[in-house]
Design goal:
Layout lengths: L7 E5 L7 H12 L6 E5 L1 H11 L3 H12 L11 H11 L7 H11 L11 E7 L4 E5 L4 H8 L9 E3 L2 E4 L9 H6 L4 E5 L14 H22 L6 E4 L24 H17 L7
Parallel strand pairs: 1-2, 1-7, 2-3, 7-8
Antiparallel strand pairs: 3-4, 3-6, 5-6
Helix pairs in contact: 1-3, 1-9, 2-6, 5-6
Amino acid sequence: MGTQEHKVAFVLGGGGLLGAGEVGMLQALLEAGVVPDVVVGTSVGAINGAAVAADPSPGAVEALRGVWLGLAGSGLYAGGPFKRMGHIARARTHVHPNEPLRALLTEHLGDGLIEDLAVPFQCVAASIERAAEHWFTTGPLVEAVLASSAVPGVLPPVAIGAETYLDGGLVNSIPIERALTLGARTLYVLQVGRIDRPLVAPTKPWEVASVAFEIARRHRFARDMATLPPDATVHVLPTGADEPPRHGDLSSLRYRDFGAVQRRIAAAHRATADYLATAPERTR
């Protein structure tokens, strides 16, 4: 990465299909003339972040919007229950292969290297062998993004070199600290709305894992926000959602339901544009 001091960072968090809102945020940022010096991303934020790092222009974000709107017919998570069960029986660790996602990423990002992007970019994945976060700073872009977005149980772990990786959201869902480490002092946080969600004790079996994960991710986010250096300004961009979903609402876990993509993009675009028009100097 070199020793260049990065001033403005786009920090893109994870969140599955809720990540469609990040596209609207990116659109509003670039329309307002806010261009990043560095981009860091996790999971779906790595996908969106790589796209804007490759070309930080409104036109490129419009193309990314087209990709999101076309996901329903892309075959990304194709197959009925019997086909998925058959794949689980063969693979044992995941429901879907990652070849369709690799093909989609290659089609829109090419087969280049991280270090060749227009804007410095890094994404994070969870190393299984080291039980630690791993930041991809160089090397093949698509493989790094695949590793960062390898949702446990849904997509296969990604082997790169001597290590195997799972979704970066397991270790660093909203990588504020990384952006600060890279020298950024004005951070625009593109998040999917989960940090606003009321969190109460689980009452159903399927809520236990989601609540446990939310505690871990919110704890780190709260810690990072509470320990900001005095010269840092952090803007947590709004999703525009009318009401944050409850942790017991399984809609955000339906990773094959693309129906709300357009609504999420539009709502986040409107809300972020309004926010930027009156953005305070500092948010904590």
